[in-house]
Each structure stands twice: as C-alpha cells, then as structure tokens.
Amino acid sequence: MPLRDRLRLLAPQGLSTSQWQQRHRIVLAALLIPLVPLVWFLGRGVLPADLATTYLILVFLQLMLAFTPRIAPTVRQVFAAGSLLTASSVLVESSARIPAAHLVFVLVLCVLTLYQDALTYIGAVGYLALYYLGLGWLDPGFIYPKTMDRSAAVSWSLTFFFVAVGASLIGVLGWLLNSRSMRESEALKVALAEAGLRERQARELNDTVVQHLATAVYASEEGDTVTSATAAREGLAAARLLVASLRSPTWLRDKMLLRDTASQDVAAGTQESPPTTASVQDVEHVSGEDSR
C-alpha cells in the first residue's frame, strides 16, 4: 500500500454519537479523581475561602456546561477537558505543591485521548506546556514548594511534561489504530452494499428480460402481434434502464431498480409486466451523459 494511503488510514476518525457519549461519561467520571482530594484539601482551609470558592465555581461551571446536552459535543468535551485541567491545577496548589501531586496531569492527559479528537488533545498539551514550561520557569513557586530553586523547578517541569505527553501517546496510538479499523470497516460495508446492489440489478435484468420475452412469445403464438410488440418494447426499455443503472450516479440507482427482490412471476407462469419507477427519459438522460 502506498505511503499516502497508509497515512490516510491512520488519520483520526470521528466517533459515532453512542461511542462519544459513552467516552464522555468516562471522562466526566474521571473528574472525581482530582475533585475528591481537592474538596478535602479545600475543606481543611488550605487556601483562603474566597480563592477556594472561586476555584470550585470555575470547576463546577465547566462541569455543568460539559453535562448540558443542548451544547455541541465538541464544545462539551472542551469544557470537560477544561474542568479536568483546572481541578488538577488547583489540586497541585492545594497539596502544598509537592511534586507527587503533579502525576494527576499524566492521568488527565491519558483520559482525554478517549475523545479521539486532535484539537482537544493538542489544546490539553498546550495547557501543560504553558503550565510547566511557562510557570515552571517564570514563577516556580506557583507550582512547586517555595524552597525549590529555579533549576530544580525547571528539571521537574520538563520531567512531568514529557512523562505526561509520553504516557498519553500510548492512548493516541490506540485511537489511531482504532481509526484505521473503523475506516476499513466502513469501506467493507460500502463494498458489500455496492455488491448487493449490483446483484439486485443483474438479477432484475434477467427477470425482466425473460418475463417480457416470455410474454412476447406467448402473444406471438396466439397471433396477438400488438401485445407481442408491446411486451418486446417494454422489455427492451426495462433492459436499457437496468443496464444504464450499472453506470448511473448514486442518486439514480435506487430509482432505476424495479423491485427489491428477484421476480417470481416467471416461475409462477404469470405474464404481467412489472411497473417501472424510472422512465425511459431517465435512461436516455444517463445514456446521453455516458456517451458524452
């Protein structure tokens, strides 16, 4: 397979509505991991009351928006990611900024890969870059103990950032492989549907031609030349219609099919012609487009 096709198969594939809802619930449930210890720390008065209240309002406001079904799924997952990242940042600040508390970001970034959305993932990585590579250098005391010097803070920041991103890449690889499987599955479904349509067209072509020819032969044997000629013309028109449908655009294919299943009229001995749902003008229109 050419490299371009391989890259196309590995491109992110969007989730179905049911898949997205299931994963969205998992992400929201994961919010309990930083939220429970955060509430416990804030309840002990680690932070000033007004600052703690502001943080909690910000976290729960984003959480409520993430739960709102009237908002588009893409926006809801952005609010869910913001709520997770905000709660994790406040947890680090509330836990006396000990380095071990920063491991919560590893979990958050891994959980966000469940969305299989590149923009959400890149946004979360950008947040961590600003948090660690920005604050870790400009104001280390904001995310680390006050006693830690700048060089140690930068070392810890680089370590936590690359550990979080590296661990989440496993999830990214999983979603890319899942996207490839989803694309191949969709391609197989399309191929099977196309094969089924072709089979219906070929079966109906055989049934229609045989039925009209049988009618023409019976009428000719009875000396009814008018009925014989009419049946022959109708059979020819139906055959042209079905042959043209083999090369027709998608919008006209179902219109050209005369029935959903093979005809049983010939086997039963009936001589009634099937009603057509597309006119001869449709055939001539498609045939004219093909000739051009």
Write the layout of secondary structure elements.
Layout: H1 3-10, H2 17-30, H3 32-43, H4 49-67, H5 73-94, H6 104-112, H7 118-138, H8 150-221, H9 225-245, H10 250-256, H11 265-268, H12 280-291
Description:
This protein is an all-alpha fold. It folds into two domains: 11-148; 196-291, no CATH class. Helices cover 76% and strands 0% of the residues. The protein has twelve helices and no strands. The chain has helices at residues 3-10, 17-30, 32-43, 49-67, 73-94, 104-112, 118-138, 150-221, 225-245, 250-256, 265-268, 280-291. α5 (73-94) packs antiparallel against α6 (104-112). The longest helix has 72 residues, at 150-221. It is rod-shaped. The two termini are 34 Å apart. Mean pLDDT is 77; it is low at 7-12 and 260-292.
Brief synopsis:
The chain is mainly α. The protein contains twelve helices and no strands. The chain has helices at residues 3-10, 17-30, 32-43, 49-67, 73-94, 104-112, 118-138, 150-221, 225-245, 250-256, 265-268, 280-291.
Q: Total domains, how many?
A: 2
- Give the tally of β-strands: 0
Shape: rod-shaped
What's the oligomerization state? single chain
Helix content: over 70%
Low-confidence stretches: 7-12, 260-292
Mean pLDDT, as a whole number? Answer: 77
Percent strand equals: under 5%
Major sheet size, sense and barrel closure: none
The tally of helices reads 12
Which structural class matches the secondary elements? mainly alpha
